[in-house]
């Protein structure tokens, strides 16, 4: 409990370091396993397999959207309840998050499994690419419950002031996955199925670590049976907060679906394969920014719940500065060394290298400013302003990106597909900055004396 209260008393830079560094390390290791996954598949199984996983990506993002709807929403509410010193309410939020996570996962995973081939064909998978995409996704969906619980428990233990536990669980999970990639793909020749088995087993190991923490009674949350009984008022609250992450993730899924279809039209299978390499690199380098974003959320939520608004805004400001400095360095590296990066996934001499290098350079143009959009949206989610966070998430994906994907390729061909993302990113940064300025002015006018935390 003392560690939780430190969220309202410890100096902000020290808090951010304490919460963000473990999250950054964990997410980097997690991103490394994703990159290694794609390297094994691209180099050993072949470009069709890498293209198959690229086709699978929108479906995987849909399952992650469900996990984030429940997990991120539950964690944000948990942080606020802890800030309000409402420990009974925090336990009730915890139990219901677990219950609804199970229900939502079962419905979505079964629905996708029964319709998988039809969905993949609609996503333009054909021939050997369809075979590879289907083989991988069937296994992932069958074990998706472990991803769901891994996401929920990771957010919860971090909110309780245990960021290092989350880091350890994610690192062990990722290292397990990397080792199993080598065994299943490199040694046993199981192809994309081996990659999927490695992913599921790695996630299972992470969940076991989290469960051992709760079963050993280390948590500040003390659960009773009725905390797990479905309470639809709690569900509405969870969803109202988590819906922003859900919308943003669904938007990413839809955007990737249309990006893949446009790439197929204007660049063929080579462009789809290029997107697999670009997306893996982009995900890898954006993970540290997401780690900082994840680290600042419980700090913002707790202090907002305790009416210490200046601490919430200072946390956001420092987080954005850290993210901007890091992403600027990454941007310069990818602009100057694009061919070197894409060669990690492709064999030397492949015609795909030039397409992927050009796409990568265009795709990351707005990366230096992306922290404003990501952390701004996370701020509104952390203070339980789910509607604002949802609108910001919808603006980037649905209002900005999707129309650009329909318009720009008609004039610029494949380059129009690449340019759609950075233009949408720029517009979303402007929207998030505007919303934050309005919120800051409103809070200054309405702020009440801070509550005592001792």
Secondary-structure blueprint:
Layout: H1 2-5, H2 12-45, H3 47-83, H4 87-114, H5 116-122, H6 127-142, H7 144-159, H8 163-187, H9 191-215, H10 232-305, H11 309-336, H12 338-342, H13 352-363, H14 370-382, H15 386-412, H16 414-446
Helix pairs in contact: 2-3, 2-8, 2-10, 3-4, 3-6, 3-7, 3-10, 4-6, 4-7, 5-6, 6-9, 7-8, 7-9, 8-9, 10-11, 10-13, 10-14, 10-15, 11-14, 13-16, 14-15, 14-16, 15-16
Characterise this structure.
With 454 residues, the chain is an all-alpha fold. It is built from 16 helices and no strands. The protein has helices at 2-5, 12-45, 47-83, 87-114, 116-122, 127-142, 144-159, 163-187, 191-215, 232-305, 309-336, 338-342, 352-363, 370-382, 386-412, 414-446. The radius of gyration is 21 Å and the shape is globular. The chain starts with a helix and ends in an 8-residue tail after the last helix. Residues 448-454 have low confidence and may be disordered.
Describe the structure using short key phrases.
16 helices, 454 residues, disordered C terminus, single chain, globular, mainly alpha
